[in-house]
Amino acid sequence: xxAKPYNGMKGWPxxxxxxxxxxxxxxxxVGAESNLGSVLDFSDAxxxxxxxxxxxxxxxxxxx
Length: 64
Description:
flat
């Protein structure tokens, strides 16, 4: 339970920079106050997009 918030707090500044750490708190607050169905729909859509990008990368790497 502790690993996900810890990794999020360490990964966010690495990707977006140190000054944007407050934005993560805003996104976490919006996610916590949102409808659970909307949050799950968004996470499903995000995972689908990531899987499509990974499939394209796999295709590019395995082309002969």
